[in-house]
Amino acid sequence: MYLLFILKAFYFALPAYLANMSPVIFDKLGLFKFLKIPIDFGKKLHNKPILGKGKTWRGLILGILVAMAAAEIQKYLFGYAQFEQISVVNFASVNYALFGFLAGAGALLGDMVKSFIKRRVGIASGRPWPVFDQLDFICGFMLFTYFIAKPDIPTIIAVFVITLILHPLTNIIGYALKFKKVWW
Ligand code: CTP
Ligand code: MG
Question: FRET pair for 133, CA 20 to 30 Å: which of 31, 106, 111, 118?
Answer without folding.
Answer: 31
